[in-house]
Amino acid sequence: MGKTTFAMNLVENAAMLQDKPVLIFSLEMPSEQIMMRSLASLSRVDQTRIRTGQLDDEDWARISGTMGILLEKRNIYIDDSSGLTPTEVRSRARRIAREHGGIGLIMIDYLQLMRVPSLSDNRTLEIAEISRSLKALAKELQVPVWRCRSLTARWSSAPISARSTPTCVSPALSNRMPT
Question: What is the pLDDT along the chain (179 residues), one digit of tens a residue?
Fold first, then answer.
């Protein structure tokens, strides 16, 4: 399972189990593709069949039922702007939180595509600043912030204690590394 698929499963569960908004900041994939994947996943219909239109009556019933639920809940927000900065993410998340009385989950796909213009000459410092900003956002809004990131083979095979950044930041976990 890929990082986006896993993250979308988290988003779908959060959106279906609560009434708070779930925010997706997708720097990698257009919103239409995210919704297609989500619709296929939630309705349990193969996305290739949805994309090609080769659907039977049962598929249509599942898709229709899923669309009804999604339209009723209206709590998944997708921002597919490219090159977002942590400041832009914070501003957009604050606005949604203010309008809806909180947020259930924020998902960022994916971390390495975010930018901090003032630190663009040093990628290590830039990633560290992005991580700090997202941690502060999680604490400020009391919301889990799930950050997808690509791992190198060297990083993913390293002992957990040697890894520098947790993959998931939430108010409860923000000062601890997973063990």
Answer: 577 788 888 888 889 888 899 999 998 889 999 999 999 999 999 999 999 999 999 999 999 999 998 888 889 999 999 889 999 999 999 999 999 999 999 999 878 888 888 877 888 888 889 999 999 999 999 999 998 877 655 545 555 544 444 444 444 444 333 33
- Domain of residue 25, CATH code: 3.40.50.300
- CA distance linking residue 100 with residue 144, whole number of Å: 16
Residue 150, domain extent:
3-29+83-169
This model's pTM is above 0.85: no
Total domains in the chain come to: 1
Going across the sheet that includes 76-79, the strands are 76-79, 22-26, 105-109, 145-148, 168-169
